Amino acid sequence: MVDYSTSFAAALLDVATEExxxxxxxxxxxxxxxxxxxxxxxxxxMKHPELKKQVKLDMIHxxxxxxxxxVLLRFLEVCIAHDQAxxxxxxxxxxxxxxxxxxxxxxxxxESATTLDQKQTDSLIHVLEERLQKKVELQVEVxxxxxxxxxxxxxxxxxxNSVLSRMNAIKEKLKHIG
Length: 178
Known about the structure:
Elements: H1 5-18, H2 22-38, H3 40-47, H4 53-64, H5 70-81, H6 88-102, E1 105-112, H7 118-132, E2 135-142, E3 150-153, E4 158-160, H8 163-175
Parallel strand pairs: 1-2
Antiparallel strand pairs: 1-3, 3-4
Helix pairs in contact: 1-5, 1-6, 2-6, 4-5
């Protein structure tokens, strides 16, 4: 089967933008992707070639009709009609990338030795937005092995200011001595 994730994601973003519900659709699409990932039976059902489309539609409506924005619900109907409901995770991934591009947002992955408080997070966002000249969306992960400091990664930049990286640098220098 051909993967149409890029086309479907682009179409959803266009409609959500036109209907002025881009943020709502984005939030719900992420929740939907989590549901899809956590429920392998749902994935199998949506990918099953012998299960009638109407059965899939009925199931989607019974579960999501009152919970999803009408644009997203209609999108799921289109996905089912074109046998793409099994590709929701890929569609979400492409949608997120296209949404960021359209809104000049840079995804920044941050590894921190400890949990960042709101003040630290806000400060980091401010510094990164000034440096990158873009809006920043942080994806923060706590990695205790770093000991202290941060590791920051964008599409084109890696900054490692962790104690672990400093210790590794010292270790390398010591290897070359004598």
